[in-house]
Amino acid sequence: MFSSAVKCLWICPVIRQRNMSTSSLAGKVAIVTASTDGIGLAAAQALGKKGAHVVVSSRRQANVDRAVALLQRQNIQVTGTTCNVGKAEDRERLIETLQKYGGIDILVSNAAVNPFFGNTLDSTEEVWDKILSINVKASFLLTKLVVPHMEKIGGGSIVFVSSIAGYQPMPALGPYSVSKTALLGLTRVLAPELASSNIRVNCVAPGIIKTRFSSALWQNEDIMDDFKKQLSIKRAGDPEEIGGVIAFLCSKEASYITGETITVTGGMSGRL
Ligand SMILES: NC(=O)c1ccc[n+]([C@@H]2O[C@H](COP(=O)([O-])OP(=O)(O)OC[C@H]3O[C@@H](n4cnc5c(N)ncnc54)[C@H](O)[C@@H]3O)[C@@H](O)[C@H]2O)c1
């Protein structure tokens, strides 16, 4: 799965070091969860274009293979593996596989689910367990797994993908919105705890971005007309407009930023 050139880059600290000086993220290893499509794929692309070796993952092998081929065509160093972030054995396998190759510098926790639309009081325990387990708990548990590997190489950067709904709940998306608020809290909790290990923890809160996840919103003209009234930039965002911000947060240029959430919404204001 790993090409010999990539193995050499990870195993040989001298080459790691030398590459770090040529481009902002050269020589770094970045894990992005749910990165075969949408914002995750755009984050992997942006990190890869800055020189990082990216590890793309999602639940289905076919999607992983497609994303790996796409990124390779763009001359991005990439490895792919399946990972259901809700499964402890998958999370551990992902990290164990990687740590053999010399360290993990960046974690972007992007995977999320939303199995429920409606009045929050109609949501079930099962809905809450699923949403909190994937959107929040898995983000924390992955962080717990990567931190020792980041500490071993002297630091790292973690980015959680929240949502503007974490600040202002979206109608009919109560449990999902609460899970995204929890990520704002997780960012604030972990940043001071990990600062002494030289690990920065930040978050992005996208507005409406054109992905499959939100297609029910941006493909509906009436809903979008309503949203546009609250937007300064009168359109939905593109995944690349989030990927670039994530890559910035992981770069040296953001070395004094931790515990922050950057909202990327086209200037959204008022109630959603
Ligand atoms: N698109 C938007 O408008 C928008 C707005 C705000 C926040 N977000 C957030 O951005 C992130 C990415 O969403 P997206 O819009 O790119 O949509 P997307 O559908 O491309 O991404 C969500 C991904 O999570 C994956 N996923 C779900 N459960 C998983 C699991 N157990 N293990 C691994 N992967 C799993 C899905 O397969 C999917 O690929 C999510 O956290 C989402 O909440 C999106």
From TrEMBL:
Family: Belongs to the short-chain dehydrogenases/reductases (SDR) family.
Keywords: Oxidoreductase
Family matches, as NCBIfam families: PRK07231.1
Name the UniProt record assigns to this protein: Uncharacterized protein
Entry-linked PANTHER family: DEHYDROGENASE/REDUCTASE (SDR FAMILY) MEMBER 4, DEHYDROGENASE_REDUCTASE 4
InterPro entries in the cross-refs: NAD(P)-bd_dom_sf (IPR036291), Sc_DH/Rdtase_CS (IPR020904), SDR_fam (IPR002347)
Highest taxon above the source species: Eukaryota
Keyword Oxidoreductase part of the UniProt annotation: yes
Organism of origin: Periophthalmus magnuspinnatus
Pfam families tied to this protein: adh_short_C2
Alphabetized SUPFAM superfamilies for the sequence: NAD(P)-binding Rossmann-fold domains
Lineage summary: Eukaryota, Metazoa, Chordata, Craniata, Vertebrata
Single GO MF descriptor: carbonyl reductase (NADPH) activity
